[in-house]
Amino acid sequence: MKFWSGLLASATLLAALPTVPSAHAQAKPRHIAHARPAPGLSAERLARLSTLLKAYVDQGRIAGAVVQIQQDGRTVYADAVGWRDKEARDPMRQDAIFRIASQTKALTSVAILMLMEDGKLLLSDPVGKYLPAWGKTTVAVANDKGGYDVVPAKRAITIRDLLTHTAGISYGGGAGEKAWRDAGIYGWYFADRNEPVADVVARMAALPMAEQPGTKFVYGYSTDILGVLIEKISGQTLDTFMNARIIGPLGMRDTSFYLPPAKAGRLAAVYAADPAGVRRNPDPGVWNGGGHVGQGHYLRGPRVALSGGAGLLSTAADYSRFLEMLRRGGELDGRRYLGRKTVELMVSNQLVDIPYEPGKGFGLGFSLRTDLGKAGELGSVGEFGWGGAYHSSYWVDPAERLTVVYMTQLLPAGSIDDHGKLRALIYQALK
User: Fold this and answer.
1) pLDDT in tens, 63-100
2) How far apart are CA 235 and CA 386, in angstroms?
């Protein structure tokens, strides 16, 4: 399969530049690239990124993807490659809607910090102050008999613990995994549940956590609990609060917890990595050992569970606006969303002496780059970002004034190396 060529031939126009389509063009995925001149990026060198993404589609390693790069708030590269729905022969578009899973966490983290700025909470507040079931928690400690003992937590879990994933709360793993599975709580996926997340979180409180609070980085339900705190403290549902304070004001028109029926034709299909080429995941999906795998219940599901940790749908353009607000210190287009010092706190390493990945730390909602040499990959000190279970990714590089959003739907992703190469080809294009 060949793609249209002649892309990025001119760096002076923000326009699609496909060649003249052949007679069988309807059977080809559409590939579109936009660029306009930027003082710090070479359009010619960025074209290597288009070539790479096309190759991944040709090789059957991804079905399709969208990339959007901004510098100084201007879109300097936006590309859609491959298929939105390969079986329907529907090309990927830049306005395709993606399941962003854990990229939701950044919005939930901003929302809880907004409540802090409203004077409604302190980061040092114990969670039990607002959710009484969390007043006293326990921890599962493995014993030499192959089981585990349940011991009291040495201190209360705080809101800051939740933001930094140091609360000791996993996605149902750890020594007490059986208790979580017996309670029907494991995996990050909530969209199929016909009960509010608050009800699930209330049941979590009685289960043994994976680690003592404040001792280790443990990735799990912490941000879902933050979502419940937002509802409890604000008196609004999570979607109502986010729409009023973040999504609506930022103009994120295609960001929501569930898909409006009128937008069904823009939702990108989910595929799984396979040696023979990507294969389409089942609709709506199945549960495996690690959680839900499939197209999901975002269109025809019960629309009850609003997951602050992994529930949102969005587009590259929408998410880029959210990131640009953070890059600018909490302000965009003359409106302030967070105070400048609050954003500074978000992007400072909160782990201190808690082990994490070499050259990286974790702030209030996303990972941070603290040392280039120790991290061993291209980037900048002070960069922050994260990703989602469907293999989407994002980062903000304040030093280079960049925001990067990469959207695809690949679960499981296998051994694909696209994230690393995406990073390499973006940074090699800097002048």
Assistant:
1) 999 999 999 999 999 999 999 999 999 999 999 999 99
2) 29
* Neighbour-count burial for 67-79, b at 16+ CB within 10 Å, e otherwise: bbbbbeeebbbbb
* Peptide bond before residue 412 is cis, with ω within 30 degrees of 0: yes
Concatenating the DSSP letter of every residue in 176-212 gives THHHHHHTT--SS--TT-SS-HHHHHHHHTTSEESS-
- Residue the block writes with tokens 């995941």: 281
- Is this prediction's pTM over 0.90? yes
Buried b (16+ CB within 10 A) or exposed e, 394-430: bbbbbebbbbbbbbbbbbbbeebebbebbbbbbbebb
CA distance 231 to 311: 15
Specify the amino acid at residue 333: D
Distance CA 165, CA 137 (A): 16
Mean pLDDT of 371-389: 97
